[in-house]
Write the structure tokens for this entry.
Amino acid sequence: MSVALENCPALVLNADFRPLNYFPLSLWSWQETIKAVFLDRVNVVSEYDEAVHSPSWEMKVPSVISLKEYVHLSRQPAFTRFNVFLRDRFSCQYCGQAFSSHDLTFDHVVPRSRNGRTEWTNVVTACASCNLRKGNKLLSQTGMRLRSKPVAPSNHLLQNAGRGFPPNFLHESWRDYLYWDSELDPT
């Protein structure tokens, strides 16, 4: 059974064979991957059954590739809405319920109207109803409590959090590289 090439992305690993990102997962289209192979920028680790070809040449489409040169991750993760949600594991920090990203907002623990800053230690994930309930009040005025104290996350913390939210599609050849440091089943 043939699979459309658009459904054949490659998992991109750093030179140490760890994924560049877990969430969102580092994936390249089959076109980007073939180009990188020809430019000798990557090693092919695993392949799909599908192939691309010209009249005189054929190549299986890579499913896992590793960069030939190690890419250093930035020291501090970017302060983005998505990274706040990921740090808080897509859960409202007031009621504790998990939500999809489009049902979440972020809340300033100390409201901006009261000189609260937009930074890691003052912003938390909130559902719309809790955010509305809190409004621009201090926690002491609402009777609400935080589930966890907001902190500036490390890249490692965000990577670990991202492992808990796998994408909808995981090719079987990727599993060894995405979960390489998880505990093995002794059976």
About this structure: The chain has six helices and six strands. The chain has two domains: 5-73+158-178, 81-142. Helices lie at 30-38, 81-87, 128-134, 139-142, 155-163, 175-178.
